[in-house]
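To illustrate the input format used throughout this study, we show a single complete record. The first block contains the structure-token representation of the backbone; no residue identities are included at this stage. The design step must infer an amino acid for every position from geometry alone.
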């Protein structure tokens, strides 16, 4: 089951990484632009407002950067502490955590798994057979 979920889990990982990197960069750049505008305007009130806004944006950027990282740490900790290696992963309500961590660490061995995304045209053609060739 984990092997079939790997493409989706990798997409989620890419989205996590994208959010973790791009949003903080955007927040810091916009705060810097506002600060630059206030400094070029030479207005002390605007500079104080822009400084406060920049500090808030940097704090938000750090939090947005750290939240996915903390979630990954919690998932790794949960797997190590609460899950056992008794091969009951499908019945276990937290089996997706093992799938997630295995996909992120690239430690899943999918060589013995059946690929549900593989197009088996040979099995579909052999099941229909030659139904129209009864010339007896």
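Output of the design step:
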């Amino acid at each position: 089951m984990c092997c079939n979920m790997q493409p989706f889990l990798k997409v989620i990982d890419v989205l996590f990484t994208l959010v973790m990197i791009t949003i903080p960069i955007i927040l810091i750049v916009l705060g810097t632009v506002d600060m630059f505008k206030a400094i070029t305007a030479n207005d002390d009130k605007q500079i104080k407002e822009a400084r406060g806004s920049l500090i808030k944006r940097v704090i938000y950027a750090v939090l947005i950067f750290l939240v996915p990282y903390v979630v990954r740490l919690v998932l790794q900790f949960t797997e190590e502490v609460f899950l056992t290696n008794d091969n009951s992963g499908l019945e276990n309500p937290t089996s997706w955590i093992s799938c997630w961590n295995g996909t992120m660490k690239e430690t899943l061995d999918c060589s013995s798994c059946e690929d549900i995304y593989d197009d088996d045209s040979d099995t579909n053609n052999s099941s229909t057979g030659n139904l129209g060739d009864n010339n007896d």
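Structural context for interpreting the output: Residues 40 and 47 are 9 Å apart (CA to CA). The two ends are 47 Å apart (CA to CA).
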